[in-house]
Amino acid sequence: MVRLIDDSELTASPVVANSTMNRERGLTGVNSYARELGFDPLAWLVEHGGATPGWLDLCSGEGRALLAAARSRTPGAVVELTGVDLVGPPAPPPDLAELPHLRLVTAAVADWEPERSYDLITCVHGLHYLGDQLGAITRAASWLTPDGRFAAHFDPESVRRADGSGAARAVVAALRSAGFEYRARRHLLVLDGGRKVALPFAYAGADPAAGANWTGQPAVGSFYHQRACAPG
User: Fold this and answer.
1) 8 Cβ neighbours under 8 A, 6+ residues apart
2) SS3 (DSSP) at 31
3) Strands 159-161, 118-123: parallel, antiparallel or unpaired by DSSP?
4) Which of 98, 165, 207, 218 pairs with 9 at a CA distance of 20 to 30 A?
């Protein structure tokens, strides 16, 4: 029988403070957000963002991608940048005072609330370390602007029913019904257009000993009770 823990206990688990998650990943190049997401976040914002576009990066690690965006001299690339990470960078970047549009927040994603809506919300290989993955996904959907985009790596096999049985097919079907696109080759979940999302699952707890996922890194198992239908 799997012992499920709540999110307050999960944040103290060694697997959550994964030392390799987004610690070295930059904005573009070989080890980058652009490579992992299949699009350059800053270029996307310049093309699709509003008058003061905002990019929220959940599980941002050291925030190197956001730092690169903040330091960019790309025309039209004045973007409000927010990174949220449980551990965050080991020290503030030396030029942080010169980057007024960048904010790096050390907080648990499950507890944090934004002060604005965002044109782009990303979570690059970060959902793997959250307990209530579906809760994080639905909250992020509500933080998007009407024309905004949410893009996050997601492993449906990490989501299980409370009795331990797999819920991957049911979860992907529910997400697609809510307007999400799941790009299986990249393990990427994408939503275009902010909205309130209700999924027919109630969070039951997490298993930090679920083992490695497709990345080869240890990940968290998320367990849910499945309701007959989403609440209206």
Assistant:
1) none
2) coil
3) unpaired
4) 165
Q: What homologous superfamily does CATH list for 7-226?
A: Vaccinia Virus protein VP39 (3.40.50.150)
Report the C-alpha gap between 49 and 147 in whole angstroms: 8
Task: Kindly report the pTM of this predicted structure.
Answer: 0.93
Instruction: List pLDDT tens digits, range 168-207.
Output: 999 999 999 999 999 999 999 999 999 999 999 999 999 9
Q: Rounded to whole angstroms, what are the CA distances from 115 to 54, 80, 111, 119, 143?
A: 11, 12, 13, 13, 9
Torsion over CA: 168, 213, 132, 160 (sign): positive
| Residue 219: half-sphere exposure toward Cβ, Cα within 13 Å | 21
Tally Cβ neighbours within 10 Å of residue 93. 18
Determine the Cα–Cα distance for residues 148 and 179; give it in Å rounded to an integer. 13
- First CA to last CA distance, the chain: 33
Residue 147: other Cβ atoms inside 10 A: 12
